[in-house]
Design goal:
By secondary structure, the protein is of the alpha+beta class. The two termini are 39 Å apart.
Amino acid sequence: MQQDDAIQLLTPTIEERIRINPLLNIDTFIIPSPYISDPTAQKDAEHSYVWTEEGEILGYILTYVSTDGSEFLIYKLVTSPYGRGRGIGTAFIEYLAEHIPEKSHLYLYVWEKQHDTVEFFRNKGFVPEDSIVYRNMVYHKLNAVREVVLDKVGGEERKTPAADEIGKTRHDARKTLSSLNAMVNALAPENAGRIIEDINRETTTLVNMLNMYRDSMSMAHEVNLQDLILERLVPYIEASRESVDLNIHLSATKPMVLGHWLNISRALVNLASNAIDAMADCNRPGRLSISIKDGDEGFVTLHIEDNGAGIPPELLEQDSEGKPAFIGQSTKADGKGEGFGTAQVWSTFGTNRLEIHSKVGHGTEWIIRFERSAIGLTKAFTSLQRRFYELQGLQEEIEITRETERTEVITAIWRIRKKEIFVFELLELFSRQHNIRDLYRVVLSYFQGRMDEVEFKSQVSHWKGDHQALNAWLSATARSIQRHKKKLSTHVDVNEYQGAFFKSYGQSVDKVIIFTMNPATGRFLATDRKLAEHLDFAPYLGGDRTKLLRGEFVGDVNIDSNPIYLGVWSVDSEEDLAVKLELLREGARAILKFGIHPDKRLALYQSTHIRFERDIDSDASCTFGEFSTLTLEELEKRFVREAEDEMQGFLAALD
């Protein structure tokens, strides 16, 4: 389908369809208000679009526009699970840029931990402008000029952003080095003071230029916190006109942290500057302590403590977002300062990573938590990291009550399933050291209430994966799934939502999902084929596999041409053959109750154990609607064949 045919204006009617479509509300993240940058901005009906194919909405983009029509906020850019990987997001951005006025600006806010999302927009011509703290989380504002976006998205023969930027940086750095070389050659006793001052200025310019390039290449990169303190902070403090007794203790085993060299550097210099000013207001020798220590698993903590004037208790009081009253306000004597330093510190770190302890007349201590960097992070790991943070910290919660609308309950189910699919992917990263099917059995036991949370956490903590963070991610995600399932079962009849539970596995469009079902109850359990066998689910569904069905499917179950497979473990006799055919028919009827289309294709497994001369015909196929209405005689006529004698007693390859 051509782009222009798929993209339509987002009308109020379509917005209502989106509101009640669970597939388009799975990723409802906490994002800054559309008015946080421009209080006068308005929803832009002329430049908000929806992507539809065969009547199905696969994505949408919602924009806001400034009153003068020159700035456009990409407020929401959402793609259905079944539309991902097809370039819909890029197409929306290009289409939007084509239809807004020349020289217009596009901007959006991205959470600091969504590293690969930032990279996606950087590749479209967006650049980081500044950061804000919203609901205790740091968001980066990305900005782009219309023409740059069109060039980046539409141009086929162009340099990569990295090539463009490194070329400019090399050019500017060479000019600075040339200037430094000339200054060194001109150095003489009579002009030493002036020339050395010029050299220091140009050297600082060069260092800042290179660091800014490093920041521009990645919104989150590795920063050696120890080097930053010794090379940036200590020289600044020692150059101060005030006499300061500086005490440094660097005990962190791995001081590499994730962050922005320039932003962290500015924040720490601001803290040091404030501390020096606070100590200057006291009639005692100034003492400043700086230390970095190993914090909780995966974190490094930085402590900056002074013996200055301290901050009054009323200014330490926090607002609803945990922001102390003095942030952005001067606390210096005689009204010196404007509070910009603390505002910059706050925008860099935010509530969750900052602690402030202060007592008037005794001093102030700032404690900052940095996430430890894994050396050599891969793109795949960064993607997993971003998804974990999204699932744990960014996604808005749906409070389920007995009055909650059905569409919201279904959305909550799809979100739970999204977390479960994330657990599947995490488990694969333990495969070098473990049999991941053994690990999944532990997860399954926990999900089914056969293992308590303490035992589960203990077992997961001992697994050996590709990265130390994986254990904590898997444990936290699994426990979140369990909590949400319990809340759901407390307030709603989950039997009424079996269809949503079943269909939600279709989010894993690239995975083969196997399931085991009890047709009598409609209950089923499912997972990624790599993690389990059908028989692993039997103990949780009644235990007797002769009364259960096994099955599998891939992707969106609403696509009728993609079959769902059903099968039994064995056929033991002529009488048992009739029982198993009726069991399959009962299973087809149960799946139809899930909301599967009657025209959906049904395919059949060969029996796992060949024990009788006749067996289910795995080459036969029909629709679910047809299979569910056939009589036993018709089933025997169309879906039974002679078993292959040489296979009797052996396991078929399918399980």
